[in-house]
């Protein structure tokens, strides 16, 4: 008759519960997601310990800080997992650190997949007097755009979001213009007559 022998088994192995995962939602501006960004999460407290990165070339100067690198073009909802990096409550088996990317709304640009959409608000004087218009991109470049009628949408290829995983093409930028008309405009009779002449000439030239 066979007997089950427990000799040689470490009963402690069955009691080693892994540390639970630590969830870290991080908010990013659209500018940061467009250009890529590095952020740091500091782990403090007597019940939490961050383990060093085993793949790091050089030791971390801040042992309690996790360096999070977000590539250009990272999308909203992207989840980055740092496996076996944190120990909670003196447990022997480390748990994962999970970083979720949360995209904050932008004042001018709206993201749809790889494409960017923007409504450029411009004063009436700028729209009337300039042959071309400009828009500042998320990496602070100025793009010169031919003037179109208000409300018309123009597509600019390769000026959308980069492809964060390195495969595929950059998206497009779609731009439309909204003219801001002056409020409470006060003109003299002579100025009104001159304005009528200018507008009539412009209409005849169309």
TrEMBL record:
Gene name? LOC113696689
Matches recorded under Gene3D superfamilies: Urease metallochaperone UreE, N-terminal domain
Q: Which organism is it from?
A: Coffea arabica (Arabian coffee)
> Organism's domain of life?
Eukaryota
A GO molecular-function annotation: unfolded protein binding
One Gene Ontology biological process = protein folding
Q: Name one Pfam family in it.
A: DnaJ_C
Looking at the UniProt record for this protein, which Gene Ontology cellular component terms does it annotate, in alphabetical order? cytosol
The UniProt record lists the Chaperone DnaJ C-terminal domain at: 26-182
The name this protein goes by in its record: Chaperone DnaJ C-terminal domain-containing protein
Q: Which InterPro entries match?
A: DnaJ_C (IPR002939), DnaJ_subfamily_B (IPR051339), HSP40/DnaJ_pept-bd (IPR008971)
Keywords, ordered alphabetically? Chaperone
